[in-house]
Specification:
Bound molecules: zinc ion
CATH class of the largest domain: Alpha Beta
Structural class: alpha/beta
Strand order of the largest sheet: 3-2-1-4-8
Length: about 300
Protein backbone atom coordinates (compact mmCIF):
# COMPACT_ATOMS: atom_id res chain seq x y z
CA UNK A 1 0.00 0.00 0.00
CA UNK A 2 1.34 3.45 -0.88
CA UNK A 3 2.50 5.72 1.91
CA UNK A 4 3.19 9.43 2.25
CA UNK A 5 5.34 11.42 4.64
CA UNK A 6 3.13 13.82 6.57
CA UNK A 7 4.22 16.66 8.82
CA UNK A 8 2.06 18.98 10.86
CA UNK A 9 4.24 22.03 11.48
CA UNK A 10 3.29 23.79 14.70
CA UNK A 11 4.65 26.67 16.72
CA UNK A 12 5.96 24.35 19.43
CA UNK A 13 6.50 21.05 17.66
CA UNK A 14 6.83 19.28 14.32
CA UNK A 15 4.59 16.22 14.27
CA UNK A 16 5.50 13.75 11.59
CA UNK A 17 4.20 10.38 10.45
CA UNK A 18 4.41 7.88 7.65
CA UNK A 19 0.74 7.42 6.73
CA UNK A 20 -0.85 4.85 4.45
CA UNK A 21 -3.93 5.35 2.26
CA UNK A 22 -6.21 3.97 4.98
CA UNK A 23 -5.04 6.71 7.36
CA UNK A 24 -2.92 4.37 9.46
CA UNK A 25 0.24 5.82 10.92
CA UNK A 26 2.99 3.35 10.11
CA UNK A 27 5.63 5.38 11.95
CA UNK A 28 5.44 8.52 14.06
CA UNK A 29 8.26 10.98 14.75
CA UNK A 30 7.98 14.28 16.62
CA UNK A 31 10.46 16.96 17.46
CA UNK A 32 10.28 20.39 19.10
CA UNK A 33 10.23 23.40 16.78
CA UNK A 34 13.49 25.34 16.87
CA UNK A 35 12.93 29.06 16.78
CA UNK A 36 13.71 31.17 13.73
CA UNK A 37 12.58 30.73 10.12
CA UNK A 38 15.58 28.89 8.63
CA UNK A 39 16.01 26.72 11.76
CA UNK A 40 12.42 25.50 11.41
CA UNK A 41 13.00 24.63 7.76
CA UNK A 42 16.22 22.78 8.59
CA UNK A 43 14.40 20.94 11.35
CA UNK A 44 11.67 19.96 8.89
CA UNK A 45 14.21 18.57 6.41
CA UNK A 46 15.79 16.46 9.15
CA UNK A 47 12.42 15.13 10.23
CA UNK A 48 11.49 14.22 6.64
CA UNK A 49 14.75 12.31 6.24
CA UNK A 50 14.05 10.45 9.47
CA UNK A 51 10.51 9.60 8.33
CA UNK A 52 11.70 8.45 4.90
CA UNK A 53 14.13 6.08 6.62
CA UNK A 54 11.27 4.67 8.71
CA UNK A 55 8.91 4.18 5.74
CA UNK A 56 8.23 0.55 4.68
CA UNK A 57 8.39 1.52 0.99
CA UNK A 58 9.39 4.55 -1.05
CA UNK A 59 6.84 7.28 -0.17
CA UNK A 60 4.74 8.52 -3.09
CA UNK A 61 4.61 12.10 -1.82
CA UNK A 62 5.09 14.50 1.06
CA UNK A 63 2.28 16.48 2.67
CA UNK A 64 3.00 19.47 4.90
CA UNK A 65 0.44 21.37 6.93
CA UNK A 66 1.55 24.76 8.23
CA UNK A 67 -0.15 27.57 10.10
CA UNK A 68 -0.45 31.07 8.71
CA UNK A 69 -1.28 32.30 5.22
CA UNK A 70 -0.59 29.60 2.66
CA UNK A 71 -0.95 29.79 -1.12
CA UNK A 72 -1.78 26.17 -1.73
CA UNK A 73 -1.54 26.24 -5.54
CA UNK A 74 2.14 27.23 -5.41
CA UNK A 75 2.97 25.73 -2.03
CA UNK A 76 4.19 29.07 -0.73
CA UNK A 77 3.92 30.08 2.90
CA UNK A 78 3.10 33.77 2.56
CA UNK A 79 3.26 34.52 6.26
CA UNK A 80 3.44 32.38 9.39
CA UNK A 81 4.07 34.56 12.43
CA UNK A 82 4.69 31.66 14.85
CA UNK A 83 7.39 30.21 12.56
CA UNK A 84 9.08 33.36 11.26
CA UNK A 85 8.26 32.40 7.65
CA UNK A 86 7.49 35.01 5.01
CA UNK A 87 7.12 34.30 1.27
CA UNK A 88 8.79 30.92 1.65
CA UNK A 89 8.44 28.70 -1.47
CA UNK A 90 8.37 25.64 0.76
CA UNK A 91 7.02 23.19 -1.80
CA UNK A 92 9.75 23.74 -4.40
CA UNK A 93 12.48 23.78 -1.76
CA UNK A 94 11.35 20.50 -0.24
CA UNK A 95 10.85 18.89 -3.67
CA UNK A 96 14.50 19.67 -4.38
CA UNK A 97 15.76 18.07 -1.18
CA UNK A 98 13.43 15.06 -1.01
CA UNK A 99 13.08 14.28 -4.72
CA UNK A 100 9.39 13.60 -4.04
CA UNK A 101 6.21 15.47 -5.02
CA UNK A 102 5.34 17.81 -2.15
CA UNK A 103 2.07 19.49 -1.20
CA UNK A 104 2.00 22.39 1.25
CA UNK A 105 -1.31 23.45 2.71
CA UNK A 106 -2.87 25.22 5.62
CA UNK A 107 -2.78 22.99 8.69
CA UNK A 108 -6.28 23.77 9.90
CA UNK A 109 -7.94 23.50 6.49
CA UNK A 110 -6.25 20.17 5.78
CA UNK A 111 -7.11 18.78 9.20
CA UNK A 112 -10.70 19.95 8.81
CA UNK A 113 -11.11 18.11 5.52
CA UNK A 114 -9.55 14.97 7.03
CA UNK A 115 -11.96 15.27 9.94
CA UNK A 116 -14.96 15.67 7.66
CA UNK A 117 -13.88 12.63 5.61
CA UNK A 118 -14.55 10.40 8.60
CA UNK A 119 -17.39 12.36 10.19
CA UNK A 120 -20.02 11.47 7.61
CA UNK A 121 -21.69 14.88 7.97
CA UNK A 122 -22.98 16.81 5.00
CA UNK A 123 -23.36 20.54 4.73
CA UNK A 124 -21.07 23.20 6.14
CA UNK A 125 -18.62 22.05 8.70
CA UNK A 126 -16.34 24.02 10.97
CA UNK A 127 -13.12 22.62 12.39
CA UNK A 128 -11.29 24.70 15.00
CA UNK A 129 -7.84 23.48 16.01
CA UNK A 130 -6.83 25.08 19.31
CA UNK A 131 -3.12 24.72 19.98
CA UNK A 132 -0.38 27.32 20.36
CA UNK A 133 -2.60 29.37 18.06
CA UNK A 134 -6.15 29.00 16.77
CA UNK A 135 -7.46 28.73 13.24
CA UNK A 136 -10.55 27.32 11.59
CA UNK A 137 -11.35 25.26 8.55
CA UNK A 138 -14.63 26.30 7.00
CA UNK A 139 -15.61 23.33 4.87
CA UNK A 140 -18.42 24.28 2.51
CA UNK A 141 -19.63 21.86 -0.18
CA UNK A 142 -16.71 19.52 0.53
CA UNK A 143 -13.90 22.00 0.10
CA UNK A 144 -12.22 24.25 2.64
CA UNK A 145 -12.69 27.95 1.96
CA UNK A 146 -9.21 29.39 1.36
CA UNK A 147 -10.03 32.98 0.39
CA UNK A 148 -8.61 35.10 -2.40
CA UNK A 149 -5.12 35.22 -0.86
CA UNK A 150 -5.06 31.97 1.11
CA UNK A 151 -5.80 33.81 4.33
CA UNK A 152 -9.28 32.47 5.10
CA UNK A 153 -9.91 30.64 8.34
CA UNK A 154 -7.94 32.91 10.66
CA UNK A 155 -10.58 32.42 13.31
CA UNK A 156 -8.01 33.05 16.04
CA UNK A 157 -7.72 36.65 14.92
CA UNK A 158 -11.39 37.50 14.94
CA UNK A 159 -11.67 40.39 17.41
CA UNK A 160 -14.07 39.57 20.24
CA UNK A 161 -13.02 42.23 22.75
CA UNK A 162 -12.56 45.71 21.24
CA UNK A 163 -9.48 47.30 22.87
CA UNK A 164 -8.81 43.97 24.57
CA UNK A 165 -5.49 42.33 25.32
CA UNK A 166 -2.74 42.56 22.70
CA UNK A 167 -2.35 39.60 20.35
CA UNK A 168 1.05 38.62 18.89
CA UNK A 169 -0.48 39.43 15.46
CA UNK A 170 -0.59 43.14 16.27
CA UNK A 171 -4.34 43.42 16.82
CA UNK A 172 -6.05 43.63 20.18
CA UNK A 173 -8.77 41.44 21.63
CA UNK A 174 -8.39 38.47 19.25
CA UNK A 175 -9.93 35.08 20.17
CA UNK A 176 -6.39 33.69 20.20
CA UNK A 177 -5.20 36.25 22.77
CA UNK A 178 -7.50 34.57 25.32
CA UNK A 179 -8.22 31.04 24.17
CA UNK A 180 -5.08 29.62 22.55
CA UNK A 181 -3.11 27.18 24.68
CA UNK A 182 -0.24 29.65 24.90
CA UNK A 183 -2.61 32.46 25.94
CA UNK A 184 -4.24 30.41 28.70
CA UNK A 185 -0.82 29.62 30.17
CA UNK A 186 0.49 33.18 29.76
CA UNK A 187 -2.61 34.71 31.36
CA UNK A 188 -2.55 32.20 34.21
CA UNK A 189 1.08 33.04 34.97
CA UNK A 190 0.42 36.78 34.67
CA UNK A 191 -2.06 36.40 37.54
CA UNK A 192 0.53 34.76 39.76
CA UNK A 193 -0.21 31.14 38.89
CA UNK A 194 2.64 28.71 38.43
CA UNK A 195 2.06 25.96 35.90
CA UNK A 196 4.38 24.27 33.42
CA UNK A 197 1.74 23.76 30.75
CA UNK A 198 -1.81 24.52 29.67
CA UNK A 199 -2.70 20.94 30.59
CA UNK A 200 -1.72 21.71 34.19
CA UNK A 201 -3.96 24.78 34.22
CA UNK A 202 -6.86 22.62 33.00
CA UNK A 203 -6.14 20.04 35.71
CA UNK A 204 -6.60 22.75 38.36
CA UNK A 205 -10.08 23.77 37.20
CA UNK A 206 -12.55 23.71 40.05
CA UNK A 207 -9.75 23.84 42.63
CA UNK A 208 -7.89 27.01 41.65
CA UNK A 209 -9.90 30.24 41.19
CA UNK A 210 -7.18 31.75 38.98
CA UNK A 211 -7.32 28.75 36.65
CA UNK A 212 -11.13 29.01 36.62
CA UNK A 213 -11.02 32.71 35.77
CA UNK A 214 -8.54 32.31 32.93
CA UNK A 215 -10.43 29.31 31.54
CA UNK A 216 -13.73 31.16 31.70
CA UNK A 217 -12.18 34.02 29.69
CA UNK A 218 -10.94 31.51 27.12
CA UNK A 219 -14.36 29.88 26.83
CA UNK A 220 -16.07 33.27 26.51
CA UNK A 221 -13.73 34.41 23.72
CA UNK A 222 -14.27 31.14 21.85
CA UNK A 223 -18.04 31.30 22.30
CA UNK A 224 -18.18 34.87 20.96
CA UNK A 225 -16.20 33.83 17.89
CA UNK A 226 -18.28 30.70 17.34
CA UNK A 227 -21.49 32.71 17.64
CA UNK A 228 -20.40 34.64 14.55
CA UNK A 229 -19.49 31.47 12.68
CA UNK A 230 -22.83 29.91 13.59
CA UNK A 231 -24.73 32.90 12.29
CA UNK A 232 -22.76 33.05 9.05
CA UNK A 233 -22.54 29.38 8.15
CA UNK A 234 -25.29 27.48 9.99
CA UNK A 235 -22.82 24.58 10.25
CA UNK A 236 -23.84 20.93 10.60
CA UNK A 237 -21.18 20.55 13.27
CA UNK A 238 -18.43 22.48 15.02
CA UNK A 239 -15.46 20.25 15.75
CA UNK A 240 -12.69 21.31 18.13
CA UNK A 241 -9.19 19.92 17.67
CA UNK A 242 -5.64 20.67 18.74
CA UNK A 243 -4.03 20.12 22.12
CA UNK A 244 -6.49 22.27 24.08
CA UNK A 245 -9.42 20.13 22.86
CA UNK A 246 -7.89 17.39 25.02
CA UNK A 247 -9.68 19.16 27.90
CA UNK A 248 -12.80 17.33 26.61
CA UNK A 249 -15.96 18.07 28.63
CA UNK A 250 -14.16 20.75 30.65
CA UNK A 251 -14.05 22.70 27.40
CA UNK A 252 -17.14 21.44 25.56
CA UNK A 253 -19.68 21.77 28.38
CA UNK A 254 -19.06 25.42 29.36
CA UNK A 255 -18.54 26.35 25.70
CA UNK A 256 -21.87 24.85 24.66
CA UNK A 257 -23.60 26.71 27.51
CA UNK A 258 -21.93 30.02 26.59
CA UNK A 259 -22.71 29.64 22.93
CA UNK A 260 -26.31 28.80 23.74
CA UNK A 261 -26.57 31.93 25.92
CA UNK A 262 -25.41 34.06 22.98
CA UNK A 263 -28.04 32.66 20.61
CA UNK A 264 -31.55 33.94 21.26
CA UNK A 265 -33.52 32.34 18.47
CA UNK A 266 -31.71 29.25 17.31
CA UNK A 267 -30.07 26.17 18.75
CA UNK A 268 -26.28 26.04 18.75
CA UNK A 269 -24.86 23.56 16.25
CA UNK A 270 -23.59 20.28 17.74
CA UNK A 271 -20.13 20.69 19.27
CA UNK A 272 -17.66 17.85 19.62
CA UNK A 273 -13.95 17.16 19.78
CA UNK A 274 -12.02 15.84 16.78
CA UNK A 275 -12.23 12.12 16.04
CA UNK A 276 -8.61 12.12 14.94
CA UNK A 277 -7.69 13.92 18.15
CA UNK A 278 -4.06 14.99 18.21
CA UNK A 279 -3.56 13.12 14.91
CA UNK A 280 -5.87 15.43 12.93
CA UNK A 281 -3.02 17.67 11.78
CA UNK A 282 -0.88 14.77 10.56
CA UNK A 283 -3.76 13.02 8.83
CA UNK A 284 -4.69 16.32 7.16
CA UNK A 285 -1.10 16.70 5.93
CA UNK A 286 -1.22 13.11 4.64
CA UNK A 287 -4.42 13.91 2.74
CA UNK A 288 -2.59 16.78 1.00
CA UNK A 289 0.23 14.41 0.07
CA UNK A 290 -2.07 11.78 -1.44
CA UNK A 291 -4.05 14.39 -3.36
CA UNK A 292 -0.80 15.80 -4.78
CA UNK A 293 -0.30 12.55 -6.69
CA UNK A 294 -3.96 11.96 -7.51
CA UNK A 295 -4.64 9.26 -4.93
CA UNK A 296 -7.97 9.48 -3.15
CA UNK A 297 -7.25 7.97 0.27
CA UNK A 298 -9.86 5.81 1.97
CA UNK A 299 -9.26 6.89 5.55
CA UNK A 300 -10.85 4.62 8.10
CA UNK A 301 -11.33 5.51 11.66
ZN1 LIG B 1 -4.54 38.26 16.59
Amino acid sequence: MSVVLAVDVGGTGLKGAVVDARGREVAVRDRPTRSGGSAVEENLRELLAELAAAAPSRPVAVGIGTPGTVEEASGTVVYASNLGWRNLPLRSRLEETTGLPVAVGHDGRAAGRAEQLVSGTHGSFVFVPIGTGISAALVVAGSAVSGVSGAAGEFGHVVVHPDGEPCPCGQRGCVEAYAAGAAVLRRYRARGGTAASTVEVVQRLGADPVADEVWDDAVRALALGLQGLTMLLDPAEIVLGGGVSGAGPRLLDPLEARLRSLLAWREPPPLRTARWGARAGRIGAALLGFERVGIEPAFEF
